[in-house]
Amino acid sequence: SQCLAIPGGEDPKDFHMTLAYFGKSEDWDEEVLEQLPNLIEEYASHSRSITGELNGAARFSATESSDGQDVLVVLWDCPDLPQWREGLIQHLEEHGFTPKKTHGFVPHTTLSYLDPEDQMPIPRLEIQPVTFDKVYCKIGDQEYSYPLHNEFIEKSLQKAVDPFMDYGPDP
To answer: What is the pTM of this model?
Structure first.
């Protein structure tokens, strides 16, 4: 993840791919939230690692939820990821956790926030293979990590599930 660092951008230790966002943790009953890590662990225990590629950079246009800043991202091309994510969402919804549907799912990791007038700070990224071997759950300051089971594990992206980051108000 250090190779993706942009001067003035997000700290590489904070890189993640959000699979499901449920709003702010303080908006949930604490007893209900206590179930979420166990549900994610349960789903992960029956899952294999996910392979694919980092396949370029993109720029999302400024919105209210990005505080008027464009968002520079890397894109992940993982053929099994959409179906795996849908299975996770279905599992969580069956237990009362319905994610926000503010945006469609575009597998990405935020590298930096940019003024809409700024030029792209990186012209192009080479395709790089990746294997996601863990899923993370973050609730407030608490973080849980669960392995995706596979005999061959290369590396993981930190915080693959970060459901309670503050992305601003829902539209």
So the answer is: 0.81
* Residue/partner pairs of 146-151 with CB below 8 Å, 24 or more apart: 146/40, 146/41, 146/44, 146/45, 147/44, 148/44, 148/47, 148/48, 148/49, 148/50, 149/44, 149/45, 149/46, 149/47, 149/48, 149/49, 150/48, 150/49
Does residue 118 contact residue 70 with C-beta atoms inside 8 Å?
Answer: yes
pLDDT tens, residue by residue, 76-131: 999 999 999 999 999 999 999 999 988 899 999 999 999 999 999 988 888 999 99
pLDDT value for 157 = 42
Q: Which two tokens stand for residue 57?
A: 């950079």
Do the bridges between strand 50-60 and strand 108-114 make them parallel or antiparallel, or are there none, so unpaired?
Answer: unpaired
C-alpha torsion angle, residues 76, 23, 89, 51 (rounded to 10): 20
pLDDT tens, 124-165?
888 999 999 999 999 988 999 999 975 433 334 434 444 444
Of 42, 23, 43, nearest to 33 by C-alpha is 23
Cβ atoms of residues 148 and 48 within 8 Å = yes
